[in-house]
Amino acid sequence: MGELVFVGLGLHDENDVSLRGLEEVRKADFVFVELYTNLMKGLNIEKLENLTGKKIVVVNRKMLEEENGRQILAVAKKGRTVFLVPGDPLIATTHVNLRIKAKKLGIKTHLVHGASIVSAAIGMSGLQNYKFGRSVTIPFTDGCIVSETPYNVVKTNLEAGLHTLCFLDVRAEEKRFMTINEALETLLVTEKRRRESIITYRTLVVGIARAGSINPVVKACLLGEALDYDFGGPPHTLVFPGKLHFVEAEALIELTNAPESVKKLIK
Fold it and tell me: What's the whole-model pTM score?
């Protein structure tokens, strides 16, 4: 019976993978990595190969989605196989289908978790995990009709007093990574059409850039200011705070340079 181990790489570079993850790679017969679902700006595959002593094969979206991961499953039937994934392997971007197919083929699977932008963004913002509502991805428009789903999710959460974590579109194979500024402009297009005053220049936002790196940016401010702010290179993440606990308000002010006006959101 073969084995397929999903290993989370963490957020930024090869140093983020856990000791358990490194051990799994070192014991593997075959090692694959996908790098299209998220940007690990500091990751160097050659350094990771030197750390583990293993040749690592990079797989693309077509191999995993259109070809149903056949290449990985074929070798996982024969021996111990590790599949490396940015972040946590089955959280923000899921490879559950590959795990299901492996199980149906009689291949043992298990997980080695890694740091995820889900927990990192929440922790860096100073907001409390249990006060977040549904998360959402803001996609590139490419000149098409702008999806109203992100706007609707933020609206529903804000009306319930909840925070919203927004993932920003990543097209790694095209080297395109949505910025906080682009995401806000996309949401304002919907606001202009809907005119519901949900997302305006006076809306509080938290922008997070390069979580997990040695030079991250976390900035809370009004949307109008964020539009013109230079958050630096990707990856970027965006949070819309809802009603605040007084400790959350203090954290935003002290840790993210939020304006004192955030105290008006305390409830």
Answer: 0.91
